[in-house]
Each structure stands twice: as C-alpha cells, then as structure tokens.
Amino acid sequence: MEQGWTKNLHHLRRRVSGAVILGSVDGNRIWGKEVKNTQLLHVQWSPNGKFLLFGTGTGELQLFDNQGVFVSKLSNYCDPHGNSKLAALDWYDGSRGYIEQNIPCLAICYENGKLQIMRDDKDTKPALIDTNMRSIKIKWNATGSVLAVSGLQLIRNSQGEEKEACVVQFWSPMGQFLRSLKVPGTCITSISWEYDGLRIALAVDSFIYFANTRPDYKWSFFAHDVVVYAYHKPEMFESTVVFWNTKTNDRHTRNIKKLLMITSANDHCLIVSGSDDGSQQSVLTVYNAIGIPIETKCIDFEPKFASVSKTHVFIASADIILHWQFKALAISKISALDAIRRKDICERAFHIDDIHIVGSGGNGTAIQDLRERPIILQVIPTKDCITCIASSDSVLMVVRQSGVLYQYSVPSVTLDNKYTLNFHPVSIALNSNSTRVSLLDATGILKLFDLEKRAGAAGNIIDTVSATMVASTQDASNAATISAGSMINNGQLLEFERKDVWDVRWASDDPEQFAIMEKTRLYVFRNMDPESPINCSGYICDFRDMQVKTISLDDIMKDTDSIVKDAVVHIETKALRELRTILSQNGVLNAVQFVDDRPHPRLWKIVAEAALEILDFAQAQKAFIRCQDYQGLQFIKSLKKFDDPAKQKAEIAAYCNQFETAEKIGAVDATINFLKKHGIILVIITTTSSDGLKLLLIILKEKTIVVWQNAITFWRDYASLEKIAIGLSENNALLKSIANKFVLVGLCDQAVAIYVKIGEIASAVNTCVMLNQWNTAVQLAEIHNFKEIDSVLAKYAAYLLSQNRKWEAVELYRKANYCQKSARLLFELAKDAIESEQTVMQIKKIYVLAALEVERYHSISKANRGMHHETATAALDGLLAEDSATMGDHKFLDNAWHGAEAYHFYILAQRQFYNGDRESALVTALHLREYEDIIDAKVIFSLIALISFHSKRYNTCSKAFVKLEALEASSLEAEKSFESLALDIFTKYKPIDPKGITVSCTNCMNKIKDRYKLEVILLALIVILHFQRALCLADQLLNRFISCATYASTGQWSMRSAEWFAAHFAILVFNG
C-alpha cells in the first residue's frame, strides 16, 4: 500500500492492489475507484492537486484527475519499448516555490537505472539520465532544486576490483550531475530530506544514517568585504541578488530572471543569466561592489562554467570557450567614449578542439561563426566535454571529461601545456602565483597538481605524469598520436589526498597556504602540512593575512530579509595564534625567533607594532625591513625626533589606529598633526557619547574610513565627502580624487558636479556614459556644446541593436529623451511580439508604452518651442517644422494609439463575451474592422463570426464568413473549411439580424442607437489627459453633441463626428 497527501493537506489517497481511495483530512471517504487488471505500484499528486499520476506494474504511467477520471498516458522516453519496470516516482509539489519558471519537477525512474525528469505531464523533451544503478529510490529536496537518487552501483576499488556499494547521487532539475555519496551497507530502502534541505536521512539495512548536505548556493565574495548571494521566494520566479558589505552592513539588491551563475575576482563580480526576451541568448554582466553594472555582453551559446580575473572573463560551454576582456572603470586608461568608438571589441571564442597542439594559439572568431561550422559542431560534436575551468591574470586552466588538463597563457590564449590525469575533477582552483592547482572530484577527493617542477621537492612528488597529446583534425579517425618526448610537460601530481572535501580556498598572499572544508571541520595547510582542525560549518570566502574568513550561508538563507548577526567568522591560523601567545608571555625577542622560522608579512607587522609599543626601535626597524614596509621605516625616523616618550607613544598609538589610547594619553594635538602629515582629511563630528572629541577619518589614498570607537560607524561616508568637495576651491587637487571615488561607486550626480566645477566637461560626459545616465550626458553636451555625444549615442545604440538588445536600446533612447526613436523601437518590438505569438496583454502593453513615448515626444517638442509665450503664427510654424522633421518613416507619430486601441478592443470583446455580455462583445468586435493593419483579418472576422453566431445575429455572422472566404492569405483548405462551416450554420438559420440596440439620450430621453464608441473615446480621453475638469467638460460637450440634429436623426457615430467631438473637446480643455 502507498499513500500520500496533497501539499495543502486536504486529501489523502492510498492504493491497495489496484483500489484507489480518496479521503478528506478528517478521515471521511470522498470517492473510491478500482483500476481493473492493473497493479498500481506508485502514485503521486500533481503540484496543483488536480491530477493523480499512477505507475503500474508494467511500467505504464497513467494520469487521472482528482475525481478519478482517466486523462492520458505519459510516454516512457527512457525505454520506448516498455521492457523495463517502474522503480520510483516523485513529483515536487512546489510548496516552496520554483527556482525558475517552467523548471522540471517530475522525476520518473526505471529498474534499468534510467531516469527522466519532466517539466510536467505534457513535456516531450525531458532530461534523460543513466544512473548505472539498481534498486533505486528517488526524492526531491524541499525546494525542488536537488534530486537525490539512491541505489546499488558497481564501484572499482583501489585494487581494480568491481563491487556493488550503496550510493546516493545528487542531480539538478536540468539533469546535471552534482555529487555522489558512498554509504556503508547492503541496500538503501528509503530516503528523506530534512525540511531546510541541509540533511538527508537514509534507511540502510536496519540502520538510519544522517548525512549533512552542502547546498551549492549561487554566491561569491569580492572587494575584501562584499558577499554577493542569490535566493528566491516561493511567490517569485526572479532571483533576488544581494550585495552585502559585511563591514558596513550596507545591502544592495537586484532582481534577476533566469540566474545561472555568480563568480567574482578582485573588485568585480560576474553574473550570468538567461535572456528574458524569449531568445536563447545568455547575458554576462560585470558588477561593482554596490551592485551597479559596469559592462554587459550577450552570448549565443549555453554557458556552463565561468571564471573571472582582474580584467578577463572566461565563459565555457561543453565545447566552446569565450575570452572577453572587459574594461573596468577603476583601471581602464581609455575613456568611455573611446571604448565605445573602438571597433575591435576585446573578445574572441574558440572551439576546445581548435587549439590542441602545445605552443599553438589562435586569434579566435565570433560565436556565430563557430555555430555555423557543421564539421566540428554538428557532424562530429566533441565527446570529450569541458568539466571545469579556472583562470588568473596569466593562466587559464581547462579540464575535460577524459581527465586531460589544458594550460593556456593569458591574454594570448596559447596552449602552454597539456597533462593527462588519472581521475576526473569537477572543480579546479589556482593558487596565488598560478603554479599549483587543486583538483576536486565528484566524490569529494582532493588532489594537488604542480604546473612546474620544484627544486628540492622531489620527496613529495610522484614521477612525472605520462601525457599523450592528440592532434585533432576535422576527421576524428585521422587523429594522430604524438610521442610524449615531443611535449612540454612539467606537471607533477603531488602525494597529497584528502577525502570528504567540499570547499577549497587558496591564500591570496601565499602560494603554499590553502584552507579546506572537510565535513564539518576546517583545515589550514602550509606546504601540505595540516594544522589542527577547527569545527566550522561555514563556507570559506577569503584567506589572506593568515586569517580565514567564513560565512554561514545556511543561516542567511533561512532569514533573507534581515542581516544575520555573526554570520561572518574570522579564524586565525595556528602561527598567528601562537605568535600572540609568545608576545604576551615571552616578549619580542622570542617572537622574532619564532617568525624567523615561518616568515610572513603579517607576522612581521605584528612584531613591529609590539616592538613599537615598548619603544624598541631596533627590533621594530628589523621587522619593518623583513615585511618591506617603507612607510614604517620612515615612521621610526620621525619618532626618534621626539624627546618626550609620551609624545612617542601618542604617535605610535595613532599609527596603530588606537586613537582612544592617544586621547587618554592627552596628546590629541600630536595625533592630529600626525594625521595631517600623512595627508589625511579630518572631519569633526559630534555624537551623544561622553568620551570627548571624536574624529571621522577619511583616508582617500587607502579608500577607507577609520572611525573612533563609540563614534558613528562608517566605512565610506560619501555624504561627508560631498560636503568636503563643496567647500574646496576649484583648483584643489583633491577634487579630482573625490570625483573618481564617486565614479567607482556609481554616484553619477556627485561626480559630474565636481567635474563641471573643475572644468573637465569631457570627464563629466564620460562618467554619464559609463554609468548609463544618458539623459544627463545629453544635457551636459547641449549646455557645454559637446558635439560628440550624438555620434557616441548612435554608435552605442547600434551596438545594442546588433546584439538584439532592443529593450536596452529603448531605455537608452528614453534616458536621452530621444522619444521618437524609442517609440519606433517599441512599435518594432510590438510587431516582433505579434510574430512570436506572445500574450495579447503583453502586446497591448508594448503598444501603450510606444504611444506614451510619442506623447512625451510631443510634450518635449512643445516645451522646446515655448508654446505658452508665442504667437499663433509662431506656433503654426513650430508645428510645421515638427511635421517636416518627422516625415518619412515617422508616420507612426500621427496615430500613436492605433495599436493600443486595436488590442484593447480585442481583449475587451473577448472579456465581454466570456462574461455573458454578448451584445456589447459584438459591438466591440465590430470596431476591430478598423484595425486590420494591426490584427490579422482572419483573427478579427473569426471573432466577429463566433460572437455574432452566439448573439443570434446571423446576418453579421454571414458577412464575416464572406470576408473570411475572400481573404487572399487563406489557403484552399481553409476556404473549404469556412464554406463547410457556413453551409452547416446557414442551412439552419436565416441570415437576419434582430433590431438594433437602443439607449436613452441623456439630454432629451429619446431613443437613439448605440453610442458605445463615443463613451469609449470619452473615457480614454479622460484617462489620458488626467484633467480634473475633463469629466465635466466631456459631459457638457456630449449633451450638446447628442442633441444635434445630425446625430439624433442618424444615430450613427462616424469618424467625422469623432473628429468633430475631439476638436471641440480639445478647445474646451485648452480654454479651461
């Protein structure tokens, strides 16, 4: 017997030998059904609770509704012949939302070990997986982001023998293998996830095992203190990306659709996402530390791996590698205008099989050119796919599925070396000087590999790995093997191996140090020797200055709306802890001997500060020399000039950022003088603290703010910087430095104000362009006669359009107030939406946006003419000038609301029809005859025929059929179908309409014909104009118009009468 609940706990269903019983939560039976001649093995509710999916003993999948009525059968894509029985079935209920829209959530597994993951019961292209296991059980985690598959699998041991073992495999909804876990025992009979997805329970034999899982969150750490992470809420399909400064607790969020990857390096973060315009493109965006996009690029292939360095981005699919050199604003020596003018964009792509010979390279090519080469990509696709990549400023490492490791030099992308490994890594990381890599496979085994020979390290090195280099040709059968002697192969696999590893981080300032997470323990290694483990379950985000920084992402994801206290933990290495103990117990001399044995700049810096505190200048000077701190040496020279030890201690306290100590000593003046000598600006602020004077120290060169204890906590106080800039004179050298800092964090207005103040208009415009503030850029260009802005705008817009990024081009034109161009693009987007069969509501919204842009264009044109201060002749000349400027392909400006009206009436007619108001629906549908240039005539007259038939207006229906049969675009088959349907209808019903609908006139109470369109136009004008008096004016004019003899006699609302009404209404409104 198998049973289960719907996600809302309203119903229970169970199966007993083909009998299905559905009951309520209180135990009352709702209905029962017996499926004859069928053995039911598995049953699952659909996420919406409307369907039941049954798995039978023969492997069939039968879908029933929640009333027990058979609906359909599901296809078996794993075994079309149906020779394999069903092993397991699990349908994620969606109770905690979906990580993205339309993601697979139905998992079906068969006894042959094959698995298909479907989006729903109608999915014809599921993800197909061969698990190579038997006795399979499957289970989705609580968010539907990971599928656990357990069973028995043949595993080869170290002696080369194959033996069955209990294994749990973890897969993504898209069919990507994530990790595997080997479990002791003979059989796994059941699996279950914990609610938060951080643990999984396994029933093995007579035991229950609990295993901790480490979710693969989309996150990264950069800019020393910034954590960027993504999460999603059940009610949203977008991912929320948070840029959290762990030092200041500032958070900046962005919503991103179809988020794929997050990675970072130095001061920049790369976010890879899918395009939201329905295309198959992916979007690469480089962000700064506060979540402002620096540069964006679209690519035409599916990215699977990403790596970023200081100025380089590498994106890889299964067979293609894209090298993109972005221009970071902080380091770029060329202006933004020059960057846009450049035609040779710093990007290139190559197929993984193109550069295969050591010493070879290539200029690369465009992605589209690669996709059009069928010989490599279509006829003979690569079977040796890319499994992971890593990069630095000088090296790119690529690992392939066969275990081959490629080493490329950057930026030339030349293949420097090629190695063959005896295992299959899924993750790779480079150390700080790109001489060693860490390799982690899917089972959690970590190994180290040297990219060059190291003198004196033979004791720790295995023999050089034998490597074979294959020179690929277009015909795989012609592959030639080149002898190992002709290769450049200095790589060596080290005698180092760790198990159950799930996170690795190299120290950024020491190539011999790295930290790993092994289960729930943190290990720090130096020269492959481990220190004592520390209990920790956080993710390693940084390792520098002999200090490991970890972050508890699990706690953050549990409460994404607030800042989690103590989420970031700093863990000092053993050497750092021992040095502090020696300094406190044994003194500076013993500390110097200790650091001599394990030298590191951070250790020598601590020794120097300890020596300064006891005024031991000789040892302090020695320590500063060892850590190559020239500023510290100069500081010692300045200290020797003081005769008073108190002043020396005050200077030392200020140097060590111990300003409270300096104040207690009573040498605040000495502290201020010291800071002034070092070029530090002082800003005096007041606080509620009674500790006395507090100084907010803004150190421009170091990009930091040092704050006194108990004062207001700041890291970058940009408001104070802005006040300082206002008070400085125009020729002060600090202004440009302050402006550059505003640019770095995206404060465009503040930076532009400073650039204008010092007379650097080109820099101001350049800043607006880089930060995408085109409206400000155009205004500056007009005020200061900067003529290059139009050409730059046009080139950038052309670049966006060439990348098919029309929506970004629309936003660009809107910000620059080029309304007619943005309107034209919106009309094109509306036509594209019609061709791609998007929803009618979406199409209507695009037409409305386009019309609003036209209204903005007219408003701006009127404002530029100064219509409130000109004569009638001048106004007429301005209108004629506007008409002449918009002739040609700008005819859409004359009838901007035409498309919006068409889809408004189209939606309204169907809404009225389905609400039962058929007469109004027919009147609305008949108005669509004026919009055949927008909506397909076949659609219009089909709708009219349908509504008129149900409204029993058979004459109108007959005319619609005549129009449908006469359409030129109709095929012969369509014509015959129309004729056949018309014959069936009009042999039963005469083509006669009943009398027309009449309404009472609001003025004379006489009966007149329908005035529906008049009311629609009135309402539209009232909504658009937003005038408080519009209703009153419209009512007055309406009464005057209805009482006129022409309208009362004919009862018809013509286009001419509409023009009369609109003109008089405009006159009334204008005269106010």
From TrEMBL:
<dbReference type="GO" id="GO:0005737">
    <property type="term" value="C:cytoplasm"/>
</dbReference>
<protein>
    <submittedName>
        <fullName>WD repeat-containing protein 35</fullName>
    </submittedName>
</protein>
<keyword id="KW-0853">WD repeat</keyword>
<dbReference type="GO" id="GO:0035721">
    <property type="term" value="P:intraciliary retrograde transport"/>
</dbReference>
<dbReference type="InterPro" id="IPR056159">
    <property type="entry name" value="Beta-prop_IFT121_TULP_N"/>
</dbReference>
<dbReference type="GO" id="GO:0097730">
    <property type="term" value="C:non-motile cilium"/>
</dbReference>
<keyword id="KW-0677">Repeat</keyword>
<feature type="domain" description="IFT121/TULP4 N-terminal">
    <location>
        <begin position="18"/>
        <end position="214"/>
    </location>
</feature>
<keyword id="KW-0963">Cytoplasm</keyword>
<dbReference type="GO" id="GO:0030991">
    <property type="term" value="C:intraciliary transport particle A"/>
</dbReference>
<dbReference type="InterPro" id="IPR039857">
    <property type="entry name" value="Ift122/121"/>
</dbReference>
<dbReference type="Pfam" id="PF25170">
    <property type="entry name" value="TPR_WDR35"/>
</dbReference>
<dbReference type="GO" id="GO:0061512">
    <property type="term" value="P:protein localization to cilium"/>
</dbReference>
<dbReference type="InterPro" id="IPR057979">
    <property type="entry name" value="TPR_IFT121"/>
</dbReference>
<dbReference type="Pfam" id="PF23390">
    <property type="entry name" value="Beta-prop_WDR35_2nd"/>
</dbReference>
<feature type="domain" description="IFT121 second beta-propeller">
    <location>
        <begin position="219"/>
        <end position="572"/>
    </location>
</feature>
<dbReference type="GO" id="GO:1905515">
    <property type="term" value="P:non-motile cilium assembly"/>
</dbReference>
<feature type="domain" description="IFT121-like TPR repeats">
    <location>
        <begin position="894"/>
        <end position="993"/>
    </location>
</feature>
<dbReference type="InterPro" id="IPR015943">
    <property type="entry name" value="WD40/YVTN_repeat-like_dom_sf"/>
</dbReference>
<dbReference type="InterPro" id="IPR036322">
    <property type="entry name" value="WD40_repeat_dom_sf"/>
</dbReference>
<dbReference type="InterPro" id="IPR057361">
    <property type="entry name" value="TPR_WDR35"/>
</dbReference>
<dbReference type="Pfam" id="PF25768">
    <property type="entry name" value="TPR_IFT121"/>
</dbReference>
<dbReference type="Pfam" id="PF24797">
    <property type="entry name" value="Beta-prop_WDR35_TULP_N"/>
</dbReference>
<dbReference type="InterPro" id="IPR056158">
    <property type="entry name" value="Beta-prop_IFT121_2nd"/>
</dbReference>
